[in-house]
Amino acid sequence: MTECSSSETPRSALGEPSNLSTADGVTDAGTVWFVGAGPGDPELLTVKGRDLIARAGAILFAGSLVSEAATRWAPGGCDIADSKGMTHEEICTWLIDRARRHQTVIRLQTGDPSLYGALIEMVQPLDAAGIPVRVVPGVSSAFAAAAAGVESLTLPEVSQTVILTRVAGRTPMPEGEDLVSLARHHCTLCIFLSITLLSTIQRDLREAGWPEDSPILVVHKASWPGEEKIVRATLATVRDACRAAKIVTQSMIIASPTVGARQWETLVRSRLYDASFTHRFRRAVKPGAS
Ligand code: SAH
């Protein structure tokens, strides 16, 4: 844990806009901000997140994946700590304590804070302590993985639905959310936290009727400069392909009938851009009209 001096750099000295968080009428005095740090590339942090970090009095980041964003833009003297070795109680105590001493306290989380981020269990003790809480969204790894592979999670007449899910590990799945049931929709599945459970995923997709040649994209450390690995496989080969690529942690699994569409010869195009489609900003071109 890195403990520095707790003196906050005055906002004016940082050239920060003084109305950053008051534009919508909310004061940032003693506020804990849950900030999505994005998938790993520090440049995928939002401008709002970066501006908050630049004037933070204290930052608690979630493990090595987001440390770079915290340290790159934090002001000198910022109280920065890694929550890697902390319990839930220690995390909440840290945030409450720092919120009593600093105007802007940040809990920096990977991707978007609303996905598998233990957000509510941290917010409740802060609510009980009377500490204002705000959330800044982040780029989820599901989207960073799609971007890495130049994939679209939705395609007309192929899949218009995306399910963000995981398979049961130590956290059980609620009734009706087992992968077999979800996969029966045959839509896009973004599977988090499950790279060590590829044999379970293969078994469940087979049980849901997915063919052996169903395309699957696995992206390890999506967006991480120099560390990203992309594996293109099928239901039949995904486990061996990931083993061969030595991928065992921090990966997004995208199982979708849309994967690989860049190479398709026939594609149903979006109606929005179709010449025969009228919408608010454009009139349809009649067949035969010049
Ligand atoms: N809130 C995060 C998810 C946290 S759960 C988000 O929105 O992305 C942690 C899981 O997210 C990992 O097990 C992995 O499945 C996925 N993940 C996080 N960062 C990733 C990255 N850079 N590349 C691939 N998967 C990632």
TrEMBL record:
<dbReference type="Pfam" id="PF00590">
    <property type="entry name" value="TP_methylase"/>
</dbReference>
<keyword id="KW-0169">Cobalamin biosynthesis</keyword>
<keyword id="KW-0489">Methyltransferase</keyword>
<dbReference type="GO" id="GO:0009236">
    <property type="term" value="P:cobalamin biosynthetic process"/>
</dbReference>
<dbReference type="InterPro" id="IPR000878">
    <property type="entry name" value="4pyrrol_Mease"/>
</dbReference>
<dbReference type="InterPro" id="IPR050161">
    <property type="entry name" value="Siro_Cobalamin_biosynth"/>
</dbReference>
<keyword id="KW-0949">S-adenosyl-L-methionine</keyword>
<keyword id="KW-0808">Transferase</keyword>
<dbReference type="InterPro" id="IPR006362">
    <property type="entry name" value="Cbl_synth_CobM/CibF"/>
</dbReference>
<dbReference type="InterPro" id="IPR035996">
    <property type="entry name" value="4pyrrol_Methylase_sf"/>
</dbReference>
<feature type="region of interest" description="Disordered">
    <location>
        <begin position="1"/>
        <end position="22"/>
    </location>
</feature>
<dbReference type="InterPro" id="IPR014777">
    <property type="entry name" value="4pyrrole_Mease_sub1"/>
</dbReference>
<feature type="compositionally biased region" description="Polar residues">
    <location>
        <begin position="1"/>
        <end position="10"/>
    </location>
</feature>
<comment type="pathway">
    <text>Cofactor biosynthesis; adenosylcobalamin biosynthesis.</text>
</comment>
<dbReference type="GO" id="GO:0046026">
    <property type="term" value="F:precorrin-4 C11-methyltransferase activity"/>
</dbReference>
<dbReference type="InterPro" id="IPR014776">
    <property type="entry name" value="4pyrrole_Mease_sub2"/>
</dbReference>
<protein>
    <submittedName>
        <fullName>Precorrin-4 C(11)-methyltransferase</fullName>
        <ecNumber>2.1.1.133</ecNumber>
    </submittedName>
</protein>
<dbReference type="InterPro" id="IPR003043">
    <property type="entry name" value="Uropor_MeTrfase_CS"/>
</dbReference>
<feature type="domain" description="Tetrapyrrole methylase">
    <location>
        <begin position="31"/>
        <end position="237"/>
    </location>
</feature>
<comment type="similarity">
    <text>Belongs to the precorrin methyltransferase family.</text>
</comment>
<dbReference type="GO" id="GO:0032259">
    <property type="term" value="P:methylation"/>
</dbReference>
